[in-house]
## 1
Amino acid sequence: MGKMVSPEACSLVQSQAGPSRHYGTVEDERQGQETESDAQGSNAVTTNLTCQDCVIVSCIFAALLALNCVTIGFGLPALARKRAAYGNLTVPASSSPLRQFKSYVVVSDVNYCAPIGANVIAKGGSAVDAAIATLLCNGAVHPHAMGIGGGVIFTIYNHTTKTAFIIDGRETAPIGSELFPKDRLSTGALSIAVPGELSAYEKAHSLFGRMPWKQLVQPTIDLCRKGFPVTKELANALANKRNEISSNANLRLAYFNKEKRRIFVEGEIMTCSELAASLELIRDEKAAAFYGGSLGKQLISDLTRQGARLRLMDLFAYKAELREALRKDLLQANVTLYSPPLPGNGAILSLILSILDGYRFSAKNISDVRSASKMFHNIIESLKVGYIAKANLGDQTFLKNQTMLDYIMSTKFAEQIRHSIYNVTHSSECYRVPFDYPPKEERGISHTIVLTSNGDAVAATSSINKKFGSLILSPRTGILLNSHMADFSVEVYGSNAVASGKRPMSSMVPAIFVDIDGTPRLVLGGSGGNRITAGQAQVAIQNLYLGKNVKQAVDAPRLHYEPVHDKVFHEEQFPGVLVDKLCFRGYQVAEDHEPSAINAVSMNSAGIFANLDFRKLGSVAGL
């Protein structure tokens, strides 16, 4: 593993190797002999050129020479520009602006939704109130990414008490799911896990909310009734699932333009009347309407008709959990990282940054090619260890090997890994971290950030797993269900194996970095499946260590390590010279066509700063 150089990516290596030798076939040899004979025959013919012929030949030669000079004249500057771009370590700024605020900000990767959250704060609501109102909107506008049929993880920081908490609304496996056919858990009716979204909203509101519940739900009801323009992202997601939606009557009910008899396209007004009616029940009865109430009964009835094994008792039994946030002190950056424990991916983000913290990165590490190459090599090896370690983890309530988790989180383990990283890539065996199963992808994800000037912060990531989740929609409730049963391992006895009531491992890692005085310095979260953790780690490195502002940190092209095939993916904007340097270090590399999208908010004495990732965009609002 990890010793081959990718010929597709190492363009410079190929060009330096010179032209390849061609070994012809017998037919090629025969044609060559015939050509040679023709040439010898032609040499025997005497050619007489007139003065007029000489003039014509001279003119042609002069024209060709002039054309060649023009080509070189235009070509050399282009070649020079290409060579300069190849070795340029400076990242061009994206079109996504750096936004500055004084009092508060709400960031959503969904259009239209951040203003709803900002309006909640303007009316006296808390940061958690704003997050809940924004998330409800996110689920209505981008149903392919999240919704009340999925799950969510909140990381909440209270500046007054200097404490951080996690609300774990991750889905759970239904009762008896150990008996489900493992090959049918990836999509469809059996892929549905017990939704935790609404339970988490209600728990977060009961602990940290100020505004009446009804006022958090009503804006999204109004949006669903009135309708909203279909965003570019939703239109693309619908187009990608055109066949599945067209062949499913329930999905057509929600995502077909009835007048034009096709899926909605960008800019068309989409309404959600069934979902609006469900939200009205939730507005009046809170989460109880869903977890065993009238709404839950309608939902289960619809799902049973479509082959799901989710039962009313599963909804009754579900409870979102209040947990203590994982804490990791990053001494060189003078910050403390708060992130979600298992089944969230906070332990892995903490491990990766703990390894990298010891390198004492600074702006000097991106000042020249040699230093940058070494830094990104260290980042990749740290990602490698983190992603491999994740394969051994699962729901902490069910985890049998707690000692292993404690060791992964320890400073000693981070130091051991750091001392094991040399100048070339290593196989996973070199780090003595076993690799049990391929990580799963979560592409249906949305993230929301809220930060206020008094230092209260919320990072919330929500998901239905794949885009459009299970592709099972309840026609009477308008609720699209998740496919998070696919996030369990197929291994029968693994840490992430299926068990009734168990939460599957997740790539979600809403993170808050706090200064030594207890003030939030950086709040991160994003979408992109397994790429989320790698993306957040690199944005944190750019901001906390290399001195970039949040826009520059988010704009910077990123790398991702994929453990199944031991391959490194780089974004198109990643400097070509560094790609080739990675090849020389032994990495297999390829261009990344589905990068993560990481949103970031920072705070310092000058104010609050926010940036939407240009890779996805969304909405920002504040004061």
## 2
Amino acid sequence: MDYLKEAFGPWDWVLILVVTAMGTSMAYVHNARMKALILGLPLPFTFATLAVGMQVNSFNLSGLLLTWFFTIMVRQLHQKWKWNIFLSIILSVSFFCIAASIGTRFVPETELAFWGLIIFISISALLVVKFQKLEAEPGHKTPMPLYIKVPVIFMVVLGVILLKQELKGFVTMFPMVGVIAAYESRKSLSTMAAEIPKMILLFIPLVIIIHVSYDRLGLIGSMLAGWSVFLCILIPVTLKRIARIKSSQELA
């Protein structure tokens, strides 16, 4: 119990509330693209970063790559290979944790590594967005009952919090909402995977601002600066995408 008290700080409790709210809201959204938009909001990253209390660096970016791969892996296992969705999620989460644990030992925490990853991830996301073939998938609601959802989310976030010292910056990108989203979007995993690189391109400026302003503003100040820029990009892009969904009669 003493260990749990030490592990849990104020930001950890906020993180639990935010992830629970996001996971719950996704269950009652019909449109597959709207589900993906909610999934792409970097609120878990924000509060997980505040909970960890470390500067955003190459660990966070490496974790971003693993989160992207998590989505691809779940889709491949369940949608392409027809594996059970629960097994697909468990294997994908296990891969994230193992790869992140290895990454903390081998990924350099240097400026060169940070900016190299920024360039690599940005180019990769741009290429995927440009050349990926979109698969039309029907909207659906498959809500997990709240009496199951809330304990599951709590246990997932609890596990993340207990691992935050071990996984360091990687833990901020753990797919806390993605675990629930993968189950509840299991009939539209291609749509979810297709939206991730688009959200990554929006996310990169947030990470850059937080990183470069950390020494001057501190963690909270740099986070606020990053979000002020991020919202200026996110709001018009999101409104445009929602309008596009409505015009195509995909929004339920």
